[in-house]
Design brief:
By secondary structure, this protein is of the alpha+beta class. Helices cover 26% and strands 21% of the residues. It has 4 helices and 9 strands, in the order βααββββββββαα.
């Protein structure tokens, strides 16, 4: 069974509060800056849930109980766009070997496709998947994903979709803090859906 754990959250958000967001909302005051920061984060997380993508560069850990049984079967990495799995770009593959000793798999022994959707990992030519110990979460794959480190790396249509979410949340506030779980607005609205449809990942 596979599961994901966030290692490093994005260092920035895809929208700039004091220019892009305030211009969209047609406001200039500063007393709601904290609220706007929360709305921007909630909109980004909601968009990532809907598209199944990582928007801004972030690092995740994928845990598996074992490697695939066949060396021809790739490991598919969620949350594209994939940036790296090991090497200078960040990330690694670790596993508990058949003696229950934690090992780091050499980047020379596996290959990564960052251009496929989703990203894929396979053993290098002539290599096989390592044998693991029979425990839960025997394999840890740390990978870096997202469109990039800058606001301008994010497709404009996704930024516009976020602005639609933020505008709706701002106009339909409740007294309590908005969270990802409480955000249900705009999921079915045509404009939002059209903006994100081409970027949505089906896997």
């Amino acid at each position: 069974m596979a599961h994901l754990v966030l290692e490093t959250a994005p260092s920035i958000e895809p929208l700039v509060r004091d220019t892009t967001v305030k211009d969209h909302l047609r406001i200039t005051q500063t007393d709601e800056n904290d609220l706007l920061d929360r709305l921007i984060q909630a909109a980004r997380e909601h968009l990532e849930d809907d598209t199944r993508r990582a928007v801004i560069t972030q690092t995740w850990n994928l845990y598996l109980d074992a490697f695939p049984s066949s060396s021809a079967t790739p490991i598919l990495l969620p949350l594209p766009a994939l940036q790296s799995v090991g090497g200078d770009g960040g990330g690694f593959i670790k596993y508990y070997d058949q003696n229950n000793v934690l090992q780091t798999w050499s980047t020379d022994d596996y290959q990564v496709s960052i251009t496929s959707l989703p990203g894929r990992i396979l053993p290098a030519h002539g290599e096989v998947w390592p044998t693991t110990y029979g425990i839960l979460d025997a394999v840890q794959i740390q990978f870096v994903c997202g469109y990039g480190d800058a606001v301008t790396d994010v497709p404009e249509k996704l930024r516009q979709a976020m602005l639609l979410l933020i505008g709706s949340m701002y106009e339909n506030r409740e007294s309590e803090v908005l969270t990802r779980e409480k955000l249900v607005v705009l999921r079915g609205e045509a404009a939002y859906t059209r903006l994100i449809m081409a970027e949505r990942v089906w896997m």
